[in-house]
Input
Amino acid sequence: MFSPLIDQLINSLRHLPGVGPKSAQRMALHLLERDREGAQNLSEVLAKAVEHVHRCQQCRTLTEQALCNICSNARRNRKELCIVETPADVIAIETSAVFSGYYFVLLGRLSPIDGIGPKEIGMDVLASRFAEGEIEEVIVATNPTIEGEATAHYISERAKAQGIKVSRIAHGIPIGGELEYVDGGTLAHAISRRQEI
Output
């Protein structure tokens, strides 16, 4: 229907999460019809990011330096390590401004059916960090999925073997949520993990 180059642009935009064929088509046409300057800027910045952004040598989040801004910040608490699945999780926790330690990004979660084992999520690197003896508490912040829970259990066993305290982020009913709209699994988890007040 479109010229080959426009089709390529539409197909390229479909690589973005949550972007289907219609959304990709709308984005492509908008950039070409109404915002060519924005399209040019997007292409330049994307090319620079692909060339210069890589993984932090310590926590494995995305950065342009050898160490990200968090890992290079000496004022952070070196005794606490929060383990997350993705760089987006680091951003979410940092936005909350309640954690002042360091991070380790797994870049996924254990999923044997998909061929993702301990090596693929960096457990060898994480085990080395545990063995250094500086970390006193590990906060496991993997998602509350079957794979996330299995990953949390695996990490906790490795950390406890090194004498490190392990905690898990709380899961349950969101603030402002109403019980009648919460799914059964979330409600069951919230009740089974209840805390004394």
